[in-house]
Amino acid sequence: MFKHTLIASTLVVAALASAQSMAAIVGGGSTLPMALYTTPGVFAVGFAPYIGVGSGTGKVAFLSNDATRLNLAAGTKVDYAASDSILSAGEISTYQAEHLAPGVPTSSPDNWGPLLQFPSAATSVTIPYNKAGTTNLSLTSEQLCVALSSNNGAVRTWGEVLGTSDTTPVRVVFRSDSSGTSEILTRHLSNRCAWLFTTVSSTFVNAQAGTKPVSWIGVRSDAAVASTVATTAGAIGYAGPENLDATNNAVVARINGLLPAVGNVVTALSNIAPPATAVDRADLTKWAPVLPNPASGYPIVGYTYFIFNQCHRSPTDLNSVRIFLAKHYNAVFTSSNDQEIINKKLIPLTAAWKTAIRNTFIPVTSAQGLNNPNVCNGIGRPL
User: Distance of alpha carbon 239 from its chain centroid, rounded?
Assistant: First the structure.
């Protein structure tokens, strides 16, 4: 009897835990802001622990409601994605065809409502390196293109990069998964060196043609890039600022004379304003600005984004998302996540951006507001 009771109790606990997991707001994606999103108190009550799997995988998990992409049990709902890779035209059109009217009637549970996309924080992409005898590496954008590019499968040398006789091989440490960090980087490299980086891609090896040297090292997180470069002679890579000292020229390279220090990143992004008209606010691509080659400041910069649905079938989930957005974008510093953003070496949004996001996405009366009844009547993210 005791054994049967114990088994029954265990099954009840497991069922409750499973139900709690199903009810929580589940999401993940980018590893660049992972240290921020795993900090206690950053997300609101009701959010499950953040899962870092890379921007591309996080977007797929959300857009297809496929929790297995987050290494969770099939059938667990996915409520948001965090990504440094913006939604592509293809991703948007596929989602709209599969989850919006007129292709999907409002009576269908597959009608999830419009997508929302907006920045969470600003970031740089730093260039960590490990070159014996060098503690002040400074590269132009064009030299960086050479260092990070393949030479028809042949290994490039540091002498080739710097115009010296140094025969030390360059070992590139790159993200092997679909990564927003790769997308921000290749957007800049493609702008400056289109003959080497022929396209912008969240998959680094797809941004350039040709066979890649076997000595290159692929890893699956920004933290792994930073640690691998630090322990690999002759290495160079790219990573967000969370996992290294972006103010130390012995750790990261200057690009066009500048380190990825906060002031240099703020300068680069200073002229980007949020959507100001009703038409632009209704266009989710306008909420994802890109800057391939800033006129001033550190040149490899961007944002890390959130992707949510406007419509939610669960009132509990809706309330938790509203509470989170109200805090994350709060105008009062001490009532927001800004200090944690700074602690994790990211940069809070400007007051103009935070105001625009609060006023556009939180009020139910806003055209893009969460659960606006004129948009979300009976439709929304799956329960």
Answer: 12
129-259 and 2-124+269-293+301-376 share a CATH fold = yes
In the prediction, which pLDDT does 23 show?
55
At the second CATH level, the architecture of 2-124+269-293+301-376 is 3-Layer(aba) Sandwich (3.40)
Q: Longest C-alpha distance within the chain, in Å?
A: 81
**What is the distance of C-alpha 291 from the center of its chain?**
15
* Residue 158: partners with Cβ closer than 8 Å, 6 or more residues away: 131, 164, 166, 167, 168, 169, 170, 234
Is 198:208 a contact under the CB 8 Å cutoff?
yes
Q: Tell me if residue 213 falls in helix, strand or coil.
A: coil
Residues of the chain with pLDDT under 50: 1-22
The reported pTM is: 0.92
What is the rounded radius of gyration, in angstroms, for the C-alpha atoms of the chain?
Answer: 22
User: What is the CATH class of 129-259?
Assistant: alpha beta
Tokens 């105008």 label which residue?
331
Which region holds residue 103: left if phi is over 0, alpha if psi is between -120 and 50, else beta? alpha
Quick one: tokens of 217?
Answer: 């090292």
At 3 the pLDDT is 37
pLDDT at 209: 86
DSSP helix, strand, coil percent of the chain (3-state; round to 5): 40, 15, 45
| Non-local CB neighbours of 277 within 8 Å, separated by 6+ positions | none
Can you give the residue ranges of every domain in the chain?
Answer: 2-124+269-293+301-376, 129-259
What b/e sequence results for 186-214 when a residue is b if at least 16 CB atoms lie within 10 Å of its CB, and e otherwise? bbbbbebbeebbeebbbbbbebbeeebbe
What is the token pair recorded at 231? Answer: 């322990």
Torsion of Cα atoms, 88 then 91 then 95 then 101, to 10°: 50
